[in-house]
Design a protein that fits this description.
This protein has about 325 residues and is mainly alpha-helical. About 55% of the residues lie in helices and about 10% in strands. The protein folds into two domains: about 190 residues, no CATH class; about 80 residues, Alpha-Beta Plaits (2-Layer Sandwich). Helix 7 packs parallel to helix 11, helix 8 packs across helix 13 and helix 10 packs across helix 11.
Length: about 325
Amino acid sequence: MSPASSPVSAAVSAAVSASVRAPVRHLPAPTTLRAHLHAMRFTLARRMVQLGMLVCFYGTLHWGWKVFGQPLLTGDLSAAKLLGTLPLADPLAALQILAAGHPLVTEILIGVAVTLGVYAALGGRVFCGWVCPMNIVTDVAAWLRGKLGLADAPDLVTLPARTRYGVLVLALVVSAIAGVAAFEAFSPIAMLHRELIYGAGLGLSAALGILLLDTLVLRRGWCGHLCPLGAFWALAGRGGLVKVAFDDASCTRCGDCVRACPEPQVLHFNTVAARGMVASGECTSCGRCVAVCPEDSLKFDLRLRIHAAAPQRARGAPPVSGGSS
């Protein structure tokens, strides 16, 4: 190993880089429509995907939407079929069914494989940030906290973010004991989807309950602390091919990304600087951190490109260019 690429040299380069950071600055508040749209670009894109998914389910059921003579999208978020041919299935629902002692038919197994493949490639919690309809509710709750002056107020209940993994294990254990898919029976996500699409159930009541929980009791209580589906996708999508890349040299540590992030624990600067990316599976890929960064230190990029840039980062050279901003 050459001296220039040794761990000691890399550490020295990082220390020197940190000692000469540019002064902290923040993005100015947008003053034009174009600037507002640019600042909201990821949020707008996520809403288009979330609402577009609901419209596809609704349009197929109620208006008979077809493509190439086949129903566009039937079923629900637990089990669906695209174009009357390609099955899609929620892997956590399938795990609960297996835990309950029931076999899975071939079509569900294929649907699980397809769904796992897509989200494992993109990053599991892309489902949470870009598809799940409850994300809209929790984002509204976060907005309400700001409007009500509760953004920095202490939570009435304190729970560690890892509580959701305990809920995930509990859901599987209860499924095994009760002989039914326990979380599926009471999932507010499934309830909301069914009521919006089929007009049945208590989905809106469940959404109201989560809105009150997140607004008044615990910041990001559902998505950030309790949801077992989010816990599952955090584990399943750790190796996603698309990640938020981090350029430590240009970062001034203003902290705007941490304040904007719904999962701020994933933005530990020492960790992301060492890896060159937000590697945690708990990242929802929502893009908030990218949108608020005044130095463009955060960008969506491919994991392979980020790894390829690692030797250059260690030598203090500019990172490989590219990535979506």
